[in-house]
Amino acid sequence: MEDFLKKTKKSSRIAATLESKLKKTLLNEMADALSEKKDLIKKANRIDLKNGEENNLSKALMDRLLLNDERIEAMAKSLKEIAALKEPVGRVLEGWVVDSGLRIEKVSIPIGVIAIIYESRPNVTADAAALCLKSGNVAILKGGKEAEHSNKAIASILQEILLKHNLPKEIISLLPDSSREAVGKLIKMDKYVDLIIPRGGEGLIKYVSQNATVPVVKHDKGLCHTYIDKDADFEKAIAIAINAKVQRPGVCNAMETLLVHEEIASDILPMLLYEFEQYDTYLKGCEKTRKIINVDEALEEDFETEYLDNILSIKVVDSLKEAIDHISKYGSGHSEAIITENYTTAERFLNEVDAAAVYVNASTRFTDGGEFGFGAEVGISTNKLHARGPMGINDLTTYKYKIYGKGQIR
Amino acid sequence: MEDFLKKTKKSSRIAATLESKLKKTLLNEMADALSEKKDLIKKANRIDLKNGEENNLSKALMDRLLLNDERIEAMAKSLKEIAALKEPVGRVLEGWVVDSGLRIEKVSIPIGVIAIIYESRPNVTADAAALCLKSGNVAILKGGKEAEHSNKAIASILQEILLKHNLPKEIISLLPDSSREAVGKLIKMDKYVDLIIPRGGEGLIKYVSQNATVPVVKHDKGLCHTYIDKDADFEKAIAIAINAKVQRPGVCNAMETLLVHEEIASDILPMLLYEFEQYDTYLKGCEKTRKIINVDEALEEDFETEYLDNILSIKVVDSLKEAIDHISKYGSGHSEAIITENYTTAERFLNEVDAAAVYVNASTRFTDGGEFGFGAEVGISTNKLHARGPMGINDLTTYKYKIYGKGQIR
């Protein structure tokens, strides 16, 4: 393991100084190679599928594992899109001149070696490798055991392009040993690895966060709220509540709990009940809610649950303060929304709610790299430091200070 | 411990929304209170000094512990300076409108609860508390056992001002239990603590980095190099080398190793020897160096050592590449400088050397919050993520996205 990491660390100096134009060429050639070598990928994928069947993987997991022509073309297209993104390295973030006459520039640079730990979907292999390459980083990829052959096939196609250009293939590496113990070792290798991004189940993320000495950017759960204020426009409120819950209930930026101000509860709750019935949403409510509409009881644990399903907890609150307190207690710091026409209420909500993304009069579903205009997305960080919310390629950079002198001493 | 942390966490919501004007008032009143209650502080300090004597603290440590009128006034003055800094919370870092018509603002916000672990100097108590307060954060302060009474006296004077304004005193907290076990517990409390800043010896920093689940920003060692290129202006080179080594050898941004291009070595090394002799600097050199000037031998371990003393290792290199390779192998990523008049060489050095601060034709001694124009300094980060290099109060903030909609759904 240490030998492998030494090589990746060494190749990170080369990755960091690749010219923008060359990085584009590499990524476009990688995209073409994936298209051309579809059959090779599908052949490897069939082995994974066969093993998956033998191991009785669920239908959902089998579907995530499957690579067909269409999915391979999508993977290639994504690489071309990443190639076309604006160069993330070398942006001058700030610049100024100080009393001593030194000129200081704060400039974006690659982070170095980034390890990405993920599960099932093999397309992440290509995407993560491309995002790291575009931002001048070395990628260490650790996919799921169940996608082993597919990931290897994809990685070796990408590595061939690196070798063709006389670059070390370690710029895109698969972790050679994919056992649990290897991961346990990897996350403590702060001498060689600069950042770990775990993407997957709660267990994986918790394990990595609790045990890593390498910095971790988590892509964790989202327990998102929408608060319908007493000064809400009902039409907006209903459309947004429906959208936030039902458009795609299985994702982290979907709403899990709806908060409603008691002054308008008896007017709007029946309308919401009617609308949610059209989508077969299973509603649960607090005591006050259940005095107005006939729904099952929402218990304390419901307010703590990320359903990732077409289920919604409803709570009637007596004030903005109670809404913010509830969010502060149960929210996961991901995305929170208020629906109101009242300026002062909106301002208070925006300022006092602590989350990566706080919305006025919009659906929490917009917390997404694409919707934010970042292009391809590395993930949605639930960290409070380094990167918060949707992560684009700029979030795979850090900075250094370049200081231009003319002989200054202190 | 958990009860205490719950209270600090709760008070962080109040600290985060303090108005800029009130924060200034608080800090100025705290400064005045320190001046007025000098005798109280000196009385507490005398207990620490007495205990220090009994425990045979070194003369240097006793001096760091001592608080006299002058030092207390300096502490008060520092608080007034922090009060006058530009408001770090609420800066709009970026802002744009996306395809859906949403208006997105990336806005700086406080980090939350920051624990600062430090040793001896009691003035850090006031400084760290003030920097956290100014940036809307709650400070948990853990000073050294040897300064216990002084720290308590200072903290209680600051807390009185909070209470006078009906604010929770937990906004500035001393860790109630200052045992080693308590620190071990604290650094795993990621539920309540958002950031830990250890300032002190290598042992402390290593222990915290290896064991914390809370994010850590380290204020670690500096093994800084100056490289005199073959195209250097000798006058600048000599002035900068002397300054970087002797002006204050005991600090992290002082030079530890001097690299000299072999083409000019036989010309400049005798001049450097003459100059360094004026300052009684103890010089050690590589084999090539010792063929030119008569100095002791620099061993492998010398190039790995942060002397923090008036000692300098010298190495003759055959190229820019060898200089960069040496820095990459031995440097601590703190501050690195090149002396050259050659544009292309300077550019390569600036781009290829990975350090928080890279200099052309200036002394590494400038890596400092004050010299960077940040005002008071939280420390100098040797992290690669979140904050790098000199940390001002802006580095005690993170960000959130505020998103302004008019009913948008996906």
Helix-strand blueprint:
The structure is a homodimer of 410-residue chains.
Chain A: H1 2-16, H2 20-36, H3 38-54, H4 59-65, H5 69-84, E1 92-97, E2 103-110, E3 113-117, H6 123-134, E4 138-142, H7 148-164, E5 172-174, H8 180-186, E6 195-198, H9 202-211, E7 224-228, H10 234-246, E8 255-261, H11 262-278, E9 282-285, H12 287-292, E10 296-297, H13 300-303, E11 311-317, H14 320-330, E12 335-339, H15 343-352, E13 357-362, E14 379-381, E15 389-391, E16 397-408
Parallel strand pairs in A: 3-4, 3-6, 4-5, 7-8, 7-12, 8-11, 9-10, 9-11, 12-13
Antiparallel strand pairs in A: 1-2, 2-16, 14-15
Q: Roughly how many Å apart are the termini of chain A?
A: 45 Å
CATH fourth-tier homologous superfamily of the largest domain in chain A: Aldehyde Dehydrogenase, Chain A, domain 1
Q: Output the structural class of chain A.
A: alpha/beta
* CATH domain topology of the largest domain in chain A: Aldehyde Dehydrogenase, Chain A, domain 1
Largest sheet: spatial strand order of chain A? 10-9-11-8-7-12-13
Name the average pLDDT of chain A: 95
Largest interface, by Cβ-Cβ below 8 angstroms: which chains and how many residues each?
Answer: A-B, 67 and 67 residues
Integer count of domains of chain A: 2
Question: Based on DSSP secondary structure assignment, what is the total number of beta strands of chain A?
Answer: 16
Q: Architecture of the largest domain in chain A, CATH level 2? A: 3-Layer(aba) Sandwich
Query: Spans of chain A with pLDDT under 50 lasting ≥5 residues?
Result: none
Query: What share of residues are in beta strands of chain A?
Result: 15-25%
Assembly state? homodimer
Radius of gyration of chain A (Å): 24 Å
Number of helices of chain A: 15
Percent helix of chain A: 40-55%
